[in-house]
Write a structure and sequence with these properties.
Blueprint: E1 2-5, H1 6-11, H2 13-21, E2 26-30, E3 33-38, H3 49-61, H4 88-101
Parallel strand pairs: 1-2
Antiparallel strand pairs: 2-3
């Protein structure tokens, strides 16, 4: 295992990446303190979709996340509390669309 300072690592990065690719682990130091490791990449197999779904279900049951659901059919935005008469937003959108198309 080799150790290298940040300054030298920056100057000879390609060489150290090549060493890591060949299986060497390089300790990166900053003022004689180890701050990082440069090592060969470990290829990990991607989990199957069923495994991911199972993991997400477990997290949802534990309360760590909330699974998204599909919106109800016919769902629309509803704006409450702005004090605007019903249909104002639709009328403004229609007006903007007319302006954009030059009608």
């Amino acid at each position: 295992m080799k150790a290298v300072g940040i300054k030298q690592l920056k100057a000879r990065l390609s060489e150290y990446v090549r060493l890591a690719h060949q299986g060497e682990t390089i300790l990166v130091t900053d003022r004689d303190e180890i701050v990082a490791e440069l090592r060969p990449a470990r290829l990990q197999a991607r989990p199957a979709a069923a495994d991911v779904d199972e993991m997400l279900d477990e997290l949802a049951e534990a309360g760590a996340l909330t699974r998204a659901g599909l919106p109800k059919q016919g769902w629309t935005w509803r704006v409450n509390g702005l004090g605007l008469p019903e249909g104002t937003a639709a009328a403004l959108l229609d007006e903007l669309r007319d302006d954009a198309t030059g009608r």
